[in-house]
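Mods, move this if it's the wrong board.
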Amino acid sequence: MVHKTTTMWKGGLTFESDNPSGKTVLMDTNIEGSDERHGLSPKAMMLSSLAGCSGLDVISTLDKMKVEIDDFKMDVSGELTEEHPKYYHTVVVDYHFYGAELNEKKCERAVNLSVDKYCGVMEMFRRFAKVETNIHFHKSLN
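Not the wrong board. Structure tokens:
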């Protein structure tokens, strides 16, 4: 399968990129002396892509397992190399599950299936970075 995107310069340091879904995203970077931003940082979008890919796996797996959760989020941090070209050499993915009656074993299983088997973006990251994953459970009181 081949994915194709087209990225157009929108002036300054802003670019708009499409996606096979037909949606678009704006990208830019910090400009010295300006606080104005129009889009997302390309490198940080890589971290968002990792979270999105793994999150889709986790939620679809939990749905198949008929596991209910109240909420779910992922925090992803990446540490860049000092020298150019700067890339993420270390990435940490924290999975946060929220609910009154969390099935921790099934949540862990869903995360592990994503990390070890299904998430292609996770596998791509492992080709150039050390990836650490952590699971956190937050019990809500009902």
